[in-house]
Amino acid sequence: MAEIIGYHGTGRRKTAVARVYLRPGTGKVKINGKEYKDINEYFKNVAWAKHAIEPLVVTNTLGKFDLLIRVNGGGLSGQAGAVRLGIARALVHFDGTLRSVLKKHKMLTRDPRMVERKKYGLRKARRAPQYSKR
After folding, report:
1. Residue range 3-41, pLDDT digits in tens
2. Is residue 120 in some structural domain?
């Protein structure tokens, strides 16, 4: 049986985790087992969709790969960031020379920002209860 050539990358952002598989193809997008015409259909916000496929645009590989993405956790914004990092890492697996281009655009760095935990005695992470004089 012929081995299917594919490139894999894992991306994380906030609490979202994305496993991205790139296969040479025509630009088909399959997210969580469902086929989409384009990535805008899954990420309803155009800005999130653009953010997610930015590594493909920067490296001029848009439409050269079929995307198979498994993403879970977080909201759509975090998922878009996770997909972006996963695609960038998979592209580096595909061609190591793309690393410098992706690194220059800061696409190989995981965004470390997370939600701050709630502290006892407070309403949120830093929001104190309303002061009552009487």
Report:
1. 667 899 999 999 999 999 999 989 899 999 999 988 999
2. no
In the chain, what is the greatest distance between 2 CA atoms, to the nearest angstrom? 79
**Amino acid occupying residue 118:** K
Give me the domain span that covers residue 98: 7-104
Report the pLDDT value the prediction gives residue 122, as an integer from 0 to 100. 96
Measured CA to CA in angstroms, residue 101 lies from 63, 114, 134 at distances of 18, 27, 62
Q: Which tokens hold the place of 108?
A: 């190989």
Structural domain count, the chain: 1
CATH number of the domain where residue 20 is located:
3.30.230.10
pTM: 0.89
Mean pLDDT, 10 residues at a time, over the chain (134 residues)? Answer: 76 95 91 92 93 94 92 94 95 92 94 94 95 90
Give the DSSP letter string of 52-118. HTHHHHHTT-TTSEEEEEEEESS-HHHHHHHHHHHHHHHHHHH-GGGHHHHHHTT-SS-----PPPP
